[in-house]
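Let us work through a complete example step by step.
Step 1: write down the sequence.
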Amino acid sequence: MAKYRRGRINDEMRNEVASILREVKDPRVKDAFVSVTGAEVTADLKYAKIYYSALRGDEKELSRGLHSSASFIRSELARRLNLRMTPELTFIRDTSLAHGAHIASLLHKIEQESPRNEDEELGSDESDDRNVYADTAPEAGD
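Step 2: predict the structure and record it as tokens.
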């Protein structure tokens, strides 16, 4: 199978699973605000990994809820997608969003501390030297 076809199938699988998850009536899934971040289908279309992230809810309960509703999601996928085989679904929690938010907060924290550190490190002599050199620019006639 061509690589671009698998990419299209992955995208379509992600979109359809995201819309199907809004219809799931299991309160473990419904109340967690689950978003599908990606889908990865094998070349033979037998298995699919669905990557998800959730804003709230117990991680273990959400995982159990997704596992128990996998047959419903798979049957809806078979109805909506025109594929020869409907893959078996495996749900994997995607922690990249939380990891990215953690890194962004660390960078923001460093950014807030850096102006104070630069003033302490430079001292009065070095900051005066910078001002002196800025005033002594070469003249056009030299």
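Step 3: interpret the result. The radius of gyration is 27 Å.
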